[in-house]
Amino acid sequence: MKQGLPLTLTLGLLLLGVVPGSHAKDLGVVGQVFPISEIDMLQWIQQRLRTLEQTGELDSMKQQFQDNVKASVRRPRPVGLITTTSPEVFTVDPSLTLASDITDMDGNLIYPKGTRINPFDTATWPAMPRASQAQFQFNKTLVFFNGDDVQQRLWALGYQSQHTDETIKWILTGGEPETTHHQLNARIYFDQQGSLSRKLTLKRVPSVVKQVGIQWQVQEIDVSHFPLYDPDEIGAAHTEEARHE
Question: Who contacts 60 (Cβ-Cβ below 8 Å, separation ≥6)?
């Protein structure tokens, strides 16, 4: 009796595409054969740039990029906070919790993980300056509002005239900083990507934020009673129309 190949060897040959007892055969060439090669990406990019430069598309792309950057500076992406007719007042704890141990250059532990530090509470500050520091007071008022909203803008003008004794930091959640700067005649900041709004858990604008004790106090403002149109802008528009008649 003829003994066959061991089962394991047979299975292995089958997996490799080799059939026991089969014979190799030259079937010739079917279709056109191309050499295997890889594109040099750096060379391809340089060639692509040369093509774009020759066709003028590169200059167009550069101009488009510059225009987009200017537009984003002139009018950053709005934060998206809404107004309210039921304003609230709430507090926010500004404390920070260390996520890991703080050590000196020699590896000695200074502050362990989990230590809570409140910027407004000097009792939680590092030991060295604690003795020489009185209670910390943040003497600025943060005002968040949307410069595109006429009612919020009119409220801001009124707040500015009524609080001349305060140092106000005007922080936009929407609108154009340069335009608002001319309207308030003040330095204007923008809450880029809503970073400050998230930290202060703001949900509605306008919001006036101050330090009260060792916490932030957030006061929301209802601006629904303000006009929907700026009287000064309407007057200026009428003047411009009359000038061209």
Answer: none
Tell me the residue length of the chain: 245
C-beta of residue 195 within 8 angstroms of C-beta of residue 215: no
Take residue 194 and report the two structure tokens written for it. Answer: 């809503």
β-bridge mates for residue 204, sequence order:
82
State yes or no: cis peptide before 6, omega within 30 of 0.
no
Q: Tokens 């106090």, residue?
A: 217
Residues 106-154 pLDDT 10s: 989 888 899 898 989 988 887 655 545 667 889 999 999 999 999 999 9
How far is the first Cα of the chain from the last one, in angstroms, to the nearest whole number? 116
Residues whose CB is less than 8 angstroms from the CB of residue 170 and which lie 6 or more positions away in sequence, other chains included? 143, 145, 156, 180, 184, 186, 187, 188, 189
With a CB cutoff of 8 Å and minimum separation 6, the contacts of 114 are: 97, 98
Q: What is the largest CA-CA distance in the chain?
A: 116
Nearest CA to 120 among 134, 131, 109?
Answer: 134
pLDDT given for residue 47 in this prediction: 84
Written out in words, the top-level CATH class of the domain with range 89-94+138-220 is: alpha beta
Q: In 3D, which of 148, 174, 145 has the Cα closest to residue 158?
A: 145
Q: In angstroms, what CA-CA distances link 236 with 72, 175, 184, 226, 242? A: 28, 20, 17, 19, 10
Q: Nearest CA to 89 among 201, 226, 223?
A: 201
